[in-house]
Amino acid sequence: MKILSFSVCFFLFANIASAQVDPQLTGPGLEIGLISGSAGVAPGKSLTLGLHIHHLPGFHTYWKSPGIVGMATSIEWTLPEGFTASKIRWPYPENTFMSKHPCHGYERDVTLVVDITTPDQITAKEVKFKAKSAWMCCAKGCFPGFETFEITLPVTNKPKPVASAKAHLSKAINELPSKKHNIESIFKSSPNKKMITLTFQGDFKRPLKEAYFFSSDGQISSDQKQNFVEEKNGSITLKVARSEFSSDEKTTIPGVLKIGGLYLEIVAKLEG
Q1: Tens digit of pLDDT for each residue in 52-71?
Q2: Could you tell me which of 174, 94, 76 has the C-alpha nearest to residue 131?
Q3: Which of 66, 116, 137, 219 lies 20 to 30 Å (CA to CA) from residue 105?
Q4: Do 88 and 45 meet the contact criterion of CB atoms below 8 Å apart?
Q5: How many C-beta atoms lie closer than 10 Å to residue 179's C-beta?
Q6: Where in the chain is the domain with CATH 2.60.40.1250?
Q7: What pLDDT, on a 0 to 100 scale, did the predictor assign at position 260?
Q8: CA torsion angle for 196, 202, 208, 212 (degrees, to 10)?
Q9: pLDDT greater than 50 at residue 149
């Protein structure tokens, strides 16, 4: 009996101890790496690279405009002579939380897309791409990360696609906010007012569901509740408090409008 009691007590103690370890307080919370859509580089032909991020359950990283908390993932390139890199092409963001603070980021697996322009002539037999990246991965706790990733690719006139990387990059490109839409957006309040008023006019499916505007330059905070009102003329209006960190004298408000299952790239221009 004594041995049995000791075993039971030890088993209960082990369970209690393991229950105190919260995986959302243990970093790094992700798997991250540089991928290439093709297994080689062709002179004069563009190359698509991506920073692929797999988030562990409960964790997220941040969009280019995180909101009131967080840090956008960054990439600083070291490229061979004659090569240039585009800015990051960001897939549409999600609403998420750092602890209790609402923010804009990614909980799903995501790939940050970068287009590489190559010179018309490449004398080397292979080329190396270096991407110095920094990120913040959060759940109940936050874990900063820093790493320099490298890919070396042979120079060839007929580079072969890399199936797994191509799939990640294609998914990311399909998730880029659409620029092709008929939604007109107007910034109706003056640049210095504490309340921002935006109107959107176009073909909206009714009734409106899950509408949200992701401010890409921080003029609208991620902690403000957004209420969209359907007007009699068919437009919708958003009135929301301006961020206390917003720059003055802005005459446009860029962002991503989520409406239903669509994500639309928007630049609201000052009325008049």
Answers
A1: 999 999 999 999 999 999 99
A2: 76
A3: 116
A4: no
A5: 9
A6: 23-174
A7: 81
A8: -40
A9: yes
Q: What is the mean pLDDT of the chain?
A: 90
State the Cα–Cα distance between residues 141 and 137, nearest whole angstrom: 8
Amino acid in the structure at residue 146: F
Q: How confident is the model at residue 228 (pLDDT cuts 50, 70, 90)?
A: very high
pLDDT at 147 over 70: yes
List phi, psi (to 5°) of 35.
-130, 155
CB-CB contact of 94 with 106 (8 Å) = yes
Return the closest-CA partner of residue 222 out of 129, 103, 127, 135.
103
Token readout for 132 is: 């110095």
Distances (CA, A) of 3 to 17, 167, 228, 233: 21, 57, 66, 79
Mean of pLDDT values over 195-224: 89
Residue with tokens 């072969």, as numbered in its chain: 160
Between CA 137 and CA 59, with CA 168 as vertex, the angle to 5 degrees is: 20
Closest C-alpha to 68, from 221, 209, 190, 199? 221
pLDDT grade, residue 113 (50/70/90)? very high
Q: How confident is the model at residue 261 (pLDDT cuts 50, 70, 90)?
A: confident
Architecture of the 23-174 domain: Sandwich (2.60)
Confidence at residue 61, expressed as pLDDT on a 0 to 100 scale: 98
What Cα–Cα distance (Å) separates residue 175 from each residue in 69, 158, 199, 215, 255?
Answer: 23, 28, 24, 17, 15
Q: What are 246's two structure tokens?
A: 């917003």
